Amino acid sequence: MENGFNGKTIGRWALVFGLFSILFYFLHDIIGAQHYPGYEWMRQAVSDLTATDAPSFAVASGYSNVYHIFCCLCSAFLCILVRNERKVFKAGIYLFSLMNAVSAIGYSLFPLSGSGYDGSAQSFVHVYVITILVVLLSIISLILIAIGSFKNKKRLLGILSIAALFCMFFGAAGSAAMPKEIFGVIERFSTYSAVIFTGVLGVYGFLRYKKEV
């Protein structure tokens, strides 16, 4: 059934959740900041908005949770879509999807207990376990996706993978090297790169499904 309500059709449209996830991440950042008196987005990390002691915790966490759900749904259907792809590209998609799952579960279970880093066990896990694992999975997966994309003649996707990887490196390295006055700006290069690339993969999957359905 080309136009029927079948599994492939559901899977194809589920990939649009990748774009919705970007919207809800922006909402969690923008609306969350509006519920945090004195929040300075240029100086502070996005994660400060969902710290358990932040006045924006309830609002920002709500949008963030929807973002994570959409991310994981998009990633799950992407994993199904690429099951017959070459190993390198497929491994990259699987690891990127794992990164989204680790981010969704890890940050929900271990939000910052205080804005910035307050030295608590919960904040330690958030910063030095979950964040490091998410960054490592992101870097490895983006490298594999880029390599696999160029091998499979998906040049645009390969270029976008490299762009996301560059933004992630810039955000991670720049956060420590740049003045604290613009910490939040630089840090967002890293966080938004993964968020936006999930949407990119959702569009890729949607167009790919269009050819198969």
Task: Explain this structure.
Helix 2 (17-34) packs antiparallel against helix 3, helix 2 runs antiparallel to helix 7 (183-212) and helix 3 (57-81) packs antiparallel against helix 4. This protein is globular. It has one domain (7-212). Residues 1-5 have low confidence and may be disordered. The chain is mainly α and 213 residues long. It contains seven helices and no strands.
What's the layout of helices and strands?
Layout: H1 7-14, H2 17-34, H3 57-81, H4 87-109, H5 121-151, H6 155-177, H7 183-212
Helix pairs in contact: 1-7, 2-3, 2-7, 3-4, 3-7, 4-5, 5-6, 6-7
What is this structure, in a nutshell?
This protein is 74% helix and 0% strand. With 213 residues, the chain is mainly alpha-helical.
* Percent in strands: under 5%
Rg over CA atoms: 18 Å
Q: Supply the number of helical segments.
A: 7
* Count of DSSP strands: 0
What profile does the largest beta sheet have?
A: none
Integer count of domains: 1
Structural category is mainly alpha
Our measurement of the CA-to-CA distance between the termini, rounded to an integer number of angstroms, reads 8 Å
Order of helices and strands: HHHHHHH
In helices, the fraction of residues equals over 70%
- Roughly what is the average pLDDT, rounded to an integer? 88
Shape: globular
Low-pLDDT segments, ≥5 res: 1-5
Name a few traits of the molecule:
mainly alpha, disordered N terminus, 7 helices
